[in-house]
Amino acid sequence: MNKNNRFSFGTSDSSAARFAKLFIPITASALLILFIVSTLFYMFSGRGITKSTVERTPIHTEHYEKTGFYTDMAGAVESAEALERGMTEFFDETGVKPYLYVADGTSALEDIVGTEYDDESFMEALYEHLFDDGGHFLVLYNIKSEKWNYYSGSDAALIMDDEAVKIFGDYIAKQKDTTDIFSEYVSDVFMNTSKRIMTKTTLSDDIDSGLLIGVIVAALLAAIFAVSIIQSLKYSGNTHDAENDTYADYNLRDR
After folding, report:
1. How deeply is 214 buried, as exposed, middle or buried, from its count of CB atoms within 10 A (0-12, 13-18, 19+)?
2. Are residues 244 and 186 in the same domain?
């Protein structure tokens, strides 16, 4: 037999060719794993809202001043009913009377309270101008600067402590683009804040069921791709070994 032809059949794929066959499943698996890791990080990080770590008990409100829920000097409130729905739930859950003050700039307020807006005592001075008790949580929104300020009365601070105020601010930032209706926006912020601050945050509070299902499906797909890669590598390796054996047997017979 012609020795020059002994390698003419049973040619194996090169390493580059084998890698090309596996490139798509390898890339897909890597992307799925990246998606799973990033999604889990998002889910378990509280979705951008500060966790509630304190047990809070509603305060008693019998002796507090009876007031409305807001003053709107800028015409921003489209629906008093929509706004007060969330503020009423906040009041029922916490015992703290929420009050929203919408200002069209701050110069008029500075004249009223006798303190400059940027001064640390401005919110305290405004609170004392509006209320004679310590049971209110005052929220000031400057429609021109789009800036929010908060102040808790002495009793309200038992509920609206630094952590609770931070949670309120997180919802202000998170829900800003969820609706174009200012009344519903603020209402939802008060409603969601009251739900979160009156219980300690658990893991289930921060896991979205839809996201969880998506992560499970992605994990299954990643597992399937991983198995296919392993099987492909194993098959490719076995084929290559078999071809080498064929070459060896052929060479021995040829000799």
Report:
1. middle
2. no
Whether 99 contacts 150, CB under 8 Å: no
Write the pLDDT tens digit of every residue in 227-250: 666 666 566 555 555 555 554 454
By the 10 Å C-beta count (0-12 exposed, 13-18 middle, 19+ buried), 20 is classed as: exposed
Q: What whole-number distance in Å separates Cα of residue 206 and Cα of residue 107?
A: 41
Q: Is residue 4 part of a domain?
A: no
Task: Say yes or no: 59 and 156 in one domain.
Answer: yes
Q: How many domains does the chain have?
A: 2
Identify the pLDDT of residue 25: 63
This prediction has a pTM of 0.66
Q: Over the chain, what is the mean pLDDT?
A: 79
Cα four-point dihedral sign 86, 109, 117, 137:
negative
Instruction: Say if residue 63 is in the same domain as residue 188.
Output: yes
Domain encompassing residue 90: 55-200
CB 247 within 8 A of CB 254: no
d(CA 226, CA 131): 65
62 pLDDT higher than 90: no
CATH number of 127's domain: 3.10.310.50
Of the chain, the percentage scoring pLDDT greater than 90 comes to 49
Residue 85, judged by CB atoms within 10 A of its CB (0-12, 13-18, 19+), counts as middle
What pLDDT was estimated at residue 17? Answer: 62
Question: Does 193 lie in the same domain as 77?
Answer: yes
